[in-house]
Amino acid sequence: MKQEAFPLIFERGGKGRRAFKLPSLDVPEVEAREKERYSAYFRTEAPLLPEVSEPELIRHYTGLSNRNFGVDTGFYPLGSCTMKYNPKINEKIARLPGLTDLHPYQPEETVQGALKLMYELKTMLAEITGMDDFTLQPAAGSHGEFTGLLIIRAALEAEGKKRRKVIAPDSAHGTNPASVSMAGFEAVSIPSDERGRVDLRALKDALDDDTAALMLTNPNTLGLFESDIVEIVEAVHAVGAYVYYDGANLNAIMGKSRPGDMGFDVVHLNVHKTFSTPHGGGGPGAGPVGVKAHLTPYLPLPRIEREGAEKGEARYTLIYNAPKSIGRVRGFAFSFGVLVRAYSYIRALGGKGLKQVSEDAVLNANYLLSRLKEAYDLPYPGPVKHEFVLSGSRQKAHGVRTLDIAKRLMDFGFHPPTIYFPLIVEEALMIEPTETETKETLDAFAEALLTIAREAATTPEVVKGAPQSTPVGRLDEALAARKPVVVYRPDKERS
Amino acid sequence: MTHPYLPLTDADRQAMFEALGISDISQLFADIPDDVRLKRDLHLPEGLSEAELLKTLQAFAQKNRSTESLIHFLGAGAYDHIIPAVVDAVIARSEFYTAYTPYQPELSQGGLQAMFEFQTMIASLTGMDAATSSHYDAHTALAEATLLSLRESKRKKIALSPALHPESRSVVRAYTAGWDVDMVHVPLRGGMIDLDALEATLKGGDISALLIQYPNFFGLIEPLDKIATLTQGYGSHLIVMSNPLSLALFQSPGAYGADIVCGDMQPLGIPLNFGGPYAGYFTVKERWLRKVPGRIVGETRDERGRRGYVLTLQTREQHIRREKATSNITSNQALMALASAVAMSAFGPEGLREMAEQNFHKAHYTLAAIEAQTPYRRVYDGLFFNEFLLGLDRPAVDVEQMGLKVGLLPGLPLSRLFPKTEAPEELADQWERLLLIAVTEKRTRVEIDALVAFLKQVANGEHESQIKPQIELEINDEGWRALKNDEAHGTSKQSDEEGQKA
């Protein structure tokens, strides 16, 4: 990555340049008299859009891409995000004209292949998770959480129960309580115990007849399997509440254990994590939601079903009507282009392959942890599953914060892990290597972190002055928030 | 086992077991209680090689009829537009698509800057001050806009136009399920919101926001100036969902004073994708910048004073504010917003305006030809952009089926979207016979004329078997033919020389 000033696209090009040519208009223009009716409604001021030629456009965006770090650039161990390799064949498949050039409102007989693909995907997801049915509608993980909570809300209402509380451990993803509020519930946080797991006593104290649900990630955000899961689920069900599975960490247990078998009623998955669909610089993802049979009436619309299979004439159809459904949580049916990639990934691995994925993800995490636990504090001991959380508290004693360690890792060519999460670990470094990394990469990353630990003790200014190798140095986030500049204005430059 | 995606060999695994002091992998899973351990293989098909996988997926693709193999006039929120080749060339760069949310700005300046540029473009197009970096789609953006209004107004009622996309209405209903909110449907007059009825609704002073689509679901240009004055006059918010392409031609909602403008970037650079992924946009006036849901990129400086970009105003967000966040959204549609930014950069202000104008001219040409050559008429006579509602004399789904046999989809039968019971009152009588027709710049005159000829045959009651078969799409080789003719007559060179002399 080169260090040089990089212009905005608005600062490139020149008046009248463009990177686009339309076919010439082959119909007569609207007559002047008719057009006159519209005159009061036409736009008078041109929007601020770039004026660049095609070569300039490509140099601009290629330049930007060179100032961006992806999984294909290097190791990207962002905890809880499962930054695994994205297979290239899936990109090719998702671009097949028979899959991309489909209008969502085409008659069903013209999209039988697409519908069959989605039907098979939901069937495979149900098998992987041990659930009875799936909706593929949610556009992201937190969107799945929201959908799942709406399903629980609808089910409780149907049972005549008015309940307000949704419980989640203090180690939960921030999306859990945020989704709870959006769905009109009250978020209740319970502490983790000294093992970093759900504190059973605290849970039982919190459970009552105002409890709608418990949201749980398993393995949790510390990378630890909730070994009391059977007892936890029983306790929640005993008060007539539902148990929700946040599937962010499913990559740890495929083919090993299934949320459905653990007793979860609702599950969401993140296909951009577990099933290798690209993270896209922040999206698009997809967050399918699985339910047990007793909750299928509440699934959102449209639903995809198969008819006539017994007669050997399977036909796939979208169901738009179901009286108990929570309705729609997005436009059209699903993020098809994302889900096609997830389908391809599952078919490429098969059942044995997915199990190997989880085994290697867990092995990589434990191996990396073993190389680091002498130099960094490990507040909650393993063995872990797919990720682990270290604390930078020892380094903090030298005046080096976890933020500094993260920035210093960039100088070694690595993307930093997730930091300052989960909140229950001081100066947290949350590391998820995934199964697609080699032992050599893990060793190199471990060496870098060991070096940084030594630097923290001997030359802390080196760590605190990082990064030195990136296009810009540490950015002033306080300035950005104090006087927000969120759009470019040619007449206004930040001073 | 070995697999191309899994680099560890058995030797690697063995070495790692030794380092961990274990003899096999099961020891790392020993904390999973026996009762919840899966003791069989997953019932999934065997893993496939790359070649087998491609073949399998190609077979699925071949069972579909793509829009490129049909002549179609489908729209209703998803539009078939030209996408410049540069769009895919950029979003296929893996530095963009294999990155995640830019939590570490020093390593993500490219993506952050692209988002900042996107925010600038869409805010300018909508006439607003600020934009987020994306939402899931138009419908969820509208629902989140509704929640923002409810939080700010503390009121408990939402007014909506029945000319709002039916799926938007449904999504807003689902999103507000836990909010104890009433939805008030303001009646239509002539396909647009009835201003008298709107005023009567607003008068109570308890409406949080009016949700309106522009151009609306039936393609009509609502009089936003009057609507804004009325709505805001009663202290309600005006939330407009808008097709961004139309805004290159029509006055922006921001210019009329809208409080929030949202919508879908799909028409600008995003393939139809069978309904997704698309990208919702969300733009506001300055005063709500700190209240909006979703990620925002802001400009700042590094310690040496160099310009750079970061995710900003993060204290609104779930990872910091948890249950008090303005939304639960994290992952958004960054790559699709990038696609749109690239498309908008390619079009430029003039190209985008021309594209919008072509949509306008072609849709008006189509309507004029249908009305001149068939008995079918447009249901409403209001001003429109690239979409209009046509009244037929028989069920629209039957006409669709007839068209399909000859490779032509004449538009969307509204009865396929929702039942008559949910139809706007003024359309209920003819609900089954309504066809929503969208005409983009991609539809050629030949295709439009084929649609008109088809509708004429339908109206004449010609038997299905007589309907003209699908036209062969011609290769555009007129220029080439002209050149060859010139060569044959030996005129080409001559005229060149003459040109030089002149």
Automatic annotation (TrEMBL), chain A:
Question: Which GO BP terms, alphabetically?
Answer: glycine decarboxylation via glycine cleavage system
Q: Where is the Aminotransferase class V domain?
A: 154-280
Q: Which residues form the Glycine dehydrogenase C-terminal domain?
A: 358-458
Q: Name one Pfam family in it.
A: Aminotran_5
Presence of the UniProt keyword Oxidoreductase in the record: yes
> Where in the sequence is N6-(pyridoxal phosphate)lysine found?
273
Spell out the reaction equation it catalyses. N(6)-[(R)-lipoyl]-L-lysyl-[glycine-cleavage complex H protein] + glycine + H(+) = N(6)-[(R)-S(8)-aminomethyldihydrolipoyl]-L-lysyl-[glycine-cleavage complex H protein] + CO2
Top EC class of this enzyme:
oxidoreductase
A GO CC annotation recorded here is:
cytosol
**Names of the cofactor(s):** pyridoxal 5'-phosphate
- Key word Magnesium present: no
Q: Name one GO molecular function term.
A: pyridoxal phosphate binding
Q: Which UniProt keywords apply?
A: Oxidoreductase, Pyridoxal phosphate
EC assignment: the record states 1.4.4.2
InterPro entries assigned to the protein according to its UniProt record, in alphabetical order:
Aminotrans_V_dom, GcvPB, GDC-P_C, GDC_P, PyrdxlP-dep_Trfase, PyrdxlP-dep_Trfase_major, PyrdxlP-dep_Trfase_small
Q: What does this protein do?
A: The glycine cleavage system catalyzes the degradation of glycine. The P protein binds the alpha-amino group of glycine through its pyridoxal phosphate cofactor; CO(2) is released and the remaining methylamine moiety is then transferred to the lipoamide cofactor of the H protein.
Subunit structure, briefly? Answer: The glycine cleavage system is composed of four proteins: P, T, L and H. In this organism, the P 'protein' is a heterodimer of two subunits.
Family statement: Belongs to the GcvP family. C-terminal subunit subfamily.
Read off the PANTHER family from this record.
Answer: GLYCINE DEHYDROGENASE (DECARBOXYLATING), MITOCHONDRIAL (PTHR11773:SF1), GLYCINE DEHYDROGENASE, DECARBOXYLATING (PTHR11773)
Q: What is this protein called?
A: Probable glycine dehydrogenase (decarboxylating) subunit 2
Which species expresses this protein natively?
Answer: Candidatus Carbonibacillus altaicus
UniProtKB/TrEMBL annotation, chain B:
Name a GO molecular-function annotation. glycine dehydrogenase (decarboxylating) activity
Where do the Glycine cleavage system P-protein N-terminal domain residues begin and end? 5-393
**Entry EC no(s):** 1.4.4.2
- Which keywords does UniProt give here? Oxidoreductase
Q: Which SUPFAM superfamilies match?
A: PLP-dependent transferases
Q: Which GO terms describe its biological process?
A: glycine decarboxylation via glycine cleavage system; nucleoside metabolic process
Q: Which residues fall in a coiled-coil region?
A: none
Q: Which reaction does it catalyse?
A: N(6)-[(R)-lipoyl]-L-lysyl-[glycine-cleavage complex H protein] + glycine + H(+) = N(6)-[(R)-S(8)-aminomethyldihydrolipoyl]-L-lysyl-[glycine-cleavage complex H protein] + CO2
- Which stretches of sequence are listed as region Disordered? 482-502
Question: What InterPro entries does the database record attribute to this sequence?
Answer: GcvPA, GDC-P_N, GDC_P, PyrdxlP-dep_Trfase, PyrdxlP-dep_Trfase_major, PyrdxlP-dep_Trfase_small
- Sorted alphabetically, which PANTHER family does this protein's record hold? GLYCINE CLEAVAGE SYSTEM P-PROTEIN, GLYCINE DEHYDROGENASE (DECARBOXYLATING)
Q: Which function does this protein serve?
A: The glycine cleavage system catalyzes the degradation of glycine. The P protein binds the alpha-amino group of glycine through its pyridoxal phosphate cofactor; CO(2) is released and the remaining methylamine moiety is then transferred to the lipoamide cofactor of the H protein.
**What protein family does this chain belong to?**
Belongs to the GcvP family. N-terminal subunit subfamily.
**How the protein assembles, per its UniProt entry?**
The glycine cleavage system is composed of four proteins: P, T, L and H. In this organism, the P 'protein' is a heterodimer of two subunits.
Name assigned to this protein: Probable glycine dehydrogenase (decarboxylating) subunit 1
Q: Which organism is it from?
A: Candidatus Carbonibacillus altaicus
